[in-house]
Structure formats: structure tokens, C-alpha cells
Design brief:
It contains six helices and 20 strands. The chain is an alpha+beta fold. The strands form four sheets. Strands 1, 2, 3, 4, 5, 6, 7, 11, 12, 15 and 18 form an eleven-stranded mixed beta sheet that branches.
């Protein structure tokens, strides 16, 4: 199944996307697509609804992030060997974990706003994992049962803040608007092999990234199990699993986003995003 949230920022309502691509309101069945709605029994109940009987929503409506109340936005760095190479870093021996502030999360087509003092804002198309069941110190063999579904994440990054200032990567990853998520949460039953998905990103129509989750260094089950050793993963948490090569930092010469640019990205089976880049007010 495909779920989404629609409406003005901060006032989104839950919905599903039917087989014709129409948005159908779920407000009479769940208050929102929050963690508790992603647990297996609730998803099974929603799957049993007759979608044609649900209110149809204007397809031109704004889409928000497909999950609300995200507790943790966990990211995995350097998870594609070619991206590590273009970053000038060796492939890691174990997953690199960092965090994005949850306040960075926006809808899939909301603008990217360049923060004041930035000059090296970059793009990263990534497969996102949305947790559906509590995962704490689990084995990789158990991990897939703890996933509610998948989504697209653009891990927008200000490289000067990330790499040229002291401290951790988080401050280069967490500006408001630096976490477009969606358009949909696609449940695991609709993505039979998440390790075989094509993903791509363009800037102003020029293809910059064109990769596949087949080339991840650490696979999805391994990532979920690994992260669960260090923090409990709660329903609604998002893990962004790394980006393939083609980021702006890796171009010769480097190419970064400017106000007026258009970023478009997609992942097979998970839809597409489209963002205009804006200067900060």
C-alpha cells in the first residue's frame, strides 16, 4: 500500500493512494500517520478498507512528509563505495551513523531554502526506511519484520558547515528544509526487494545521480540491526541509507545549488520529488 499526508504544513491529514493513483482521505480511520499507525495490525486494518469508499482528494493538493511525529532521523554515511571515493574517504568498515534534526523534515515538493552563510549546498537521493515496530538490539535476521515501509529522502547537505567547520556532520545536514521526505510511505509488501531499486536525481534537467540500491555496502537488514545496537528504533523513526555517486561535491569542478535551481529525484516504486531552491529570507 501507499500512504501519504496532504494539506498545509502543520495541518496535514492522513491518506492512502489507491490503485489509480488517487489520494483517499483516512481521517475517519486514523488521526494521522504517526508511529502507532505504522504497527503491523493497524496497517493490516487499513489494508482491509475499501479504498473506493474513502473520500477522494484533489490530486493537486500539497503533499507533506508521509509520516508525522518522527522521533529520530538517522542517516548512514558513505554507504556506496563510489560515493565514498568521490568524497575522498575510504569505504567504512562498519556503518557510519549521523543524525539530521527532525525540524529539517519537509514535504517532497517543498522548496529547499539555502541557510544564511551557506555556499556549498548539495543534494543526495537516498532510500529511506520507516520503522514500524520497536527494534532494540535485534539481529539482522529479524530486522525486516520491524520495517513498516520505504520512502524517498533527499539528504540535503551544506558541505561548508559539514566539513569545514568543527564538530560533527549534523550541523551541515539539519537546516530547515534539508530533509524532503516522501511523497509516499510504501509498505514492505509492495517492495519485494528493496536491495534492487534504481534511484536517480537531476538538477535543472541534468542527470547527476543514477544508481541502484544493489550497490550498497551495508544492506537494509544490516543497517537496521546495527543502529538498534546503539539506540532503540521506535515506530515512525526514519533511517536514510546513504547516497550513490554524483553529488555536487564530487563534480569537477564542484557544483552546488543556487537559488532558482530545480532538483528532481526518484526511486523505483517510491515516486518522485521536485524542489525549487530558494534563498533565505
Amino acid at each position: 500500500m501507499k500512504f501519504c499526508r496532504y494539506g498545509a504544513p502543520g495541518a496535514e491529514k492522513p491518506a492512502l493512494v489507491d490503485s489509480r493513483g488517487m489520494i483517499r482521505d483516512l481521517s475517519d480511520h486514523i488521526p494521522d500517520l504517526i508511529g502507532s499507525a505504522l504497527e503491523p495490525q493497524t496497517l493490516a486494518d487499513l489494508a482491509g478498507l475499501e479504498s473506493a469508499a474513502l473520500p477522494e482528494i484533489n490530486p493537486g493538493v500539497r503533499l507533506g512528509p508521509p509520516v508525522s511525529g518522527v522521533g529520530k532521523f538517522v542517516c548512514i554515511g558513505l554507504n556506496y563505495a563510489d560515493h565514498a571515493k568521490e568524497s575522498g574517504l575510504p569505504p567504512p568498515d562498519e556503518p557510519v551513523i549521523f543524525m539530521k534534526a527532525t525540524s529539517s523534515i519537509v514535504g517532497p515538493n517543498d522548496p529547499i531554502v539555502l541557510p544564511k552563510g551557506s555556499g556549498k549546498t548539495d543534494w543526495e537521493v537516498e532510500l529511506g526506511i520507516i520503522i514500524g515496530r520497536l527494534a532494540k538490539d535485534i539481529a539482522a535476521s529479524e530486522a525486516m519484520a520491524h520495517i513498516a515501509g520505504y520512502c524517498i529522502v533527499n539528504d540535503v547537505s551544506e558541505r561548508a558547515f559539514q566539513l569545514e567547520r568543527q564538530g560533527q556532520w549534523t550541523k551541515g545536514k539539519s537546516a530547515d528544509s534539508f530533509g524532503p521526505v516522501g511523497p509516499w510511505l510504501v509498505t514492505t509488501d509492495d517492495i519485494p526487494d528493496p536491495q534492487d531499486l534504481d534511484l536517480w536525481l537531476t538538477v535543472n534537467g541534468r542527470t547527476m545521480q543514477n544508481g541502484s540500491t544493489r550497490t550498497m555496502i551495508f544492506g537494509i537488514a544490516e543497517i537496521v540491526a546495527y543502529v538498534s545496537q546503539f539506540m532503540s528504533l521506535q515506530p515512525g523513526d526514519i533511517i536514510s541509507t546513504g547516497t550513490p555517486p554524483g553529488v555536487g561535491m564530487g563534480q569537477t569542478p564542484p557544483h552546488y545549488l543556487r537559488a532558482g535551481d530545480r532538483v528532481e529525484l526518484g526511486i523505483e516504486g517510491l515516486g518522485q520529488q521536485s524542489q525549487m531552491v530558494e534563498a533565505s529570507a
